[in-house]
Amino acid sequence: MDCIFCKISKKEIKSEIIFEDDLTICFKDLNPVAPIHFLIIPKIHIASTSEINEKNSDVLARIFGNISKIALKFCHNGYRVVSNTGVNAGQSVMHMHFHILAGRELDWPPG
C-alpha cells in the first residue's frame, strides 16, 4: 500500500511527531491553516470514518482520548477537531485522520 500516513506511522517518512502511543500517532500538518494544526491518525490503515466498525472502533476511542491529552498541553484557548470523509468533503489522504486546530479564533460556519 502506498499510503503516506501509513509510511509516517511506520517512520518511513520523517514527520514532526507531537504524540504517539501503540495505536495512534499525532504530528504537525505540513500545510497548517492555524498556528496549531496537528493531525492524529490510527497506526492501522482505516480509509475514513465510514470504515469504523465493531472490530476497529477501539482506535477511534483512543484517538479522542489522546486528542484530549494533546489539547491540554497545546490548546489553551479552545480547539476544533475536523475529519473530512470522502473526496467531496475535502479528504485528500485516504487514511482516516483528524485535524486538531487551535491558536487563533476559528470562524463558523467552516467551509
CATH class: Alpha Beta
Strand order of the largest sheet: 1-2-3-5-4
CATH architecture: 2-Layer Sandwich
One letter per element, helices H and strands E, the order comes to HEEEHEE
Name the average pLDDT. 95
Looking at the structure, what is the overall shape?
globular
Terminal Cα span: 31 Å
CATH superfamily: HIT-like
Largest sheet: 5 strands, antiparallel
Query: Helix fraction?
Result: 10-25%
Task: Count every beta strand, where a strand is a DSSP E run of 2 or more residues.
Answer: 5
Number of domains: 1
Which secondary-structure class do the elements indicate? alpha+beta
Radius of gyration over C-alpha positions, nearest whole angstrom: 13 Å
Number of helices: 2
Spans with pLDDT under 50 lasting ≥5 residues? none
Overview of this structure, please?
- This protein is α+β, with helices and mostly antiparallel strands and 111 residues long.
- 22% of the residues lie in helices and 22% in strands.
- It has a 5-stranded antiparallel β-sheet, with helices on one face.
- The mean pLDDT is 95.
In short:
The chain is of the alpha+beta class. The protein has helices at residues 4-9, 57-74; strands at residues 17-20, 24-28, 36-42, 80-82, 98-102. A hairpin with a 3-residue loop joins β1 (17-20) and β2.
